[in-house]
Amino acid sequence: MIPHRNTSQATDNRDFQGMLGNQVWALTSDKKDQSKPCIWMSSGAVAKKQCNNYFDCTSCKYDSAMEQRVADGKQISWQNSMRKRESMERTCRHSLTMRIAPRVCAYNYNCSSCDFDQYFEDVISQGTGRGEFAMHTIKGFDLPEGYFFHNAHTWAVVENGGSIKVGLDDFALKLLGEADALDLPLTGKELKRNVAGWGLRRKDHLADVLAPVNGVIVQVNEKVRRDPGRANRDPYGDGWLFSVHNSDIKGTMKALMDHQESMAWTGEEVNRLEEMIETVAGPMATDGGILRPDIYGNLPGLDWHQLTRVFLKNR
Fold first, then answer.
1. Is 119 a member of any domain?
2. What Pfam families has UniProt attached to this entry (predicted)?
């Protein structure tokens, strides 16, 4: 046990920058994008509408319904609404969603012909992750804002472009210690929520990990496959495990715990863990201490199978 400092750490609010055509474009963090205006509202095509689909217009039911109204002649499109503005006020759709610095559209909103649009979707959105995010700590276990959690200690977060990134949470990684190997799924494999989708191995011990979401694997973090310790060092950043495609992003994320729910749940999990530790190591200090990483490795009396059954929901 070491003294606990009850602090919440927020990272610097820095933007990602990408280069295209000898110009630098700034991509801002979207950790609270679900509360930002829908592109239909930002363009002035409708009076009021907040985005609740993480700017993934291709799977958005509202966007589909509005496009149908446009086709029926009952609604002006957001593109035509923007075309009515002065040329220098015709803002790029990615600026409208506040994910890049202000930029004028050079293609009259024919996005399929825009090299920057393709660059943004193919490179920036898929490759930069969530950017910076605020981190909270509960007795030494980190929880980032904007992430969603499954009760078997996995997390999921929606990326720009509509994919869902998945990983193990800080609690599980500190509990079990650094794995000798992570048995990650292959690209194309279909995952089912609450069913074992991959696993980890430490010496002669194995643990299954339940999938937090349904979907098809579209990308695997090969760096973590080669170096499992990367997940322990940066569980919510470079230690992500894989990305999943799911056509119902909103419904999928609603089934998981949001930040406030996950904070309360983590506190309960810590209490449960402390009770287990007391059975093998005696009464714990009551001075508000926190547990060191690699709890299993530092307390040989703990039973691997009991830990994985209780916290990872192994049978």
1. yes
2. GCV_H
